[in-house]
Amino acid sequence: MLALLSNDDGIYAPGLEALVSQVSAIARVVVVAPEVEQSAVGHAISIYNPLRVTEIYKSNTLYGYAVRGTPADCVKLAVAEILDRPPDIVISGINLGKNVGDCILYSGTVSAATEGAILGIPSMAVSLATYSNPDFSYAARFAARMAELIGRRGLPHGTLLNVNVPALRPEQISGVCISRQGRFIFKDIFRKLHDPYGRDYFWLETEDIQQDANSDNDLSALKQGKISITPLKYDLTDHGLMKELKEWDITL
Ligand code: MN
């Protein structure tokens, strides 16, 4: 199995390194990841900037390819130019911080996996639900196990798996929940600050104001100490509304 590994935290991220060490046991691994952190860039691609690629060595062996671009750029470029054949799987992560609910749309981690799905490759995004003192080892072992299963069972074209692992000790994790993308209402708070030159600038912080009422969602699974696995499709069409829209008298 050939596994393409990427992320949005950058090629030097410990979460990626943990993934490499575990997935290497079950697959030939090629790392193609952003040169610098690209969290929250979503599915952006570079069309007005060149994509420069640098080989990164660790202990005198090739660790991977750093791309001066976005996570989606990395997957596109890897498949088109860097790899000698299409990968059997794309794994993105392990992200520092969960990717659940509405945040999925902004996530560079998920977008690398989405790009894999667009290219017809079984793909998975993996995130660890913490921002402090991360221990990626269990999540990395779980990711390798999932990669084996995906390799055996495949995924439908256009669907990726979004995996979130709670930041708990392995014995505290109470199973796996196949969950739905949650709906959470956020309030955007723009903190107004001043730069050294006397000009105002804004820094976005968000606050949860409403949680999903149903408990079968990704965040609820994490709160119950479970690993959340959500199958995602990038086709955003509202198929239900298509029928109703056809009834509208849309003429000018
Ligand atoms: Mn990130």
Short description:
With 252 residues, this protein is α/β, with parallel strands linked by helices. It is 26% helix and 31% strand.
- CATH topology term: Stationary-phase Survival Protein Sure Homolog, Chain: A
- Give me the strand/helix succession: EHEEEHEHEHEEEEHEH
The CATH class assignment is Alpha Beta
The strand order across the widest sheet is 3-4-2-1-5-6-7-11-8
| Fraction of residues in H or I helices | 25-40%
Give the name of the CATH architecture.
3-Layer(aba) Sandwich
* Main beta sheet strand tally, sense and closure: 9 strands, mixed
CATH superfamily: Survival protein SurE-like phosphatase/nucleotidase
Which ligands does the model contain, each kind named once? manganese (II) ion
What percentage of amino acids are in beta strands?
A: 25-35%
| Overall shape | globular
